[in-house]
What we know:
Mean pLDDT: 78
Number of strands: 5
Structural class: alpha/beta
Strand order of the largest sheet: 2-1-3-4-5
Largest sheet: 5 strands, parallel
Distance between the termini: 29 Å
Helix content: 40-55%
Amino acid sequence: MTDPLAAVAEGRRLLAAPPPGLTRRRVAVLGAATLDYLVPHLAVAYAAQGLALEAHQGAFGQWRQELLDQASPLHAFAPDAVLLIVDLPDFFPAWYARPALARSEQDAQVEGALTELSALRARVPKADFLVVVPPLDRLPGETVLSPSDAFRGQEALESFLSRLRRSEGVVPVDLDALARVEGTSRWRDERLWAMGRMRLNPLGCQ
């Protein structure tokens, strides 16, 4: 299905009434982005593989709380897989806010992020745990503000991503590599972009 809006409509239909005979998979989608249009597309992709998607969509930006709180809706849902979509500034806020961190401070932040991911992964031991790092819009401040050491932030981020790939039980999804193979012409739809930015009247959602 090539039309994104048609795929959203079809995905919502599949989520509401899965076809009989498909193997059911429970997937939690968490992150700090607009995920409302992703879940229906996942339902269409799952159906093409003979799977029926049951989805839990986490609240915006609440992925840490949902994973850490054993009484959260996520844990009540008991997912087979967790899809965590995070921007790197979510893991490295000080790194992005303050330029020219010392290398030792960068290394400490990388260690802290990997430790946190391991702890979050341990909260859902029975689920596949997939971490999606979107293509970077910007690198940490020192890549711009410190011309004498322009690649320090990039090197540290690449170290983080490389070590993330070797983390037990964590499967990173490399969108940059996918873009190189598939291209990006189908990744953006101006209609969905506009809809994703609309302010919805709560009365219209009832």
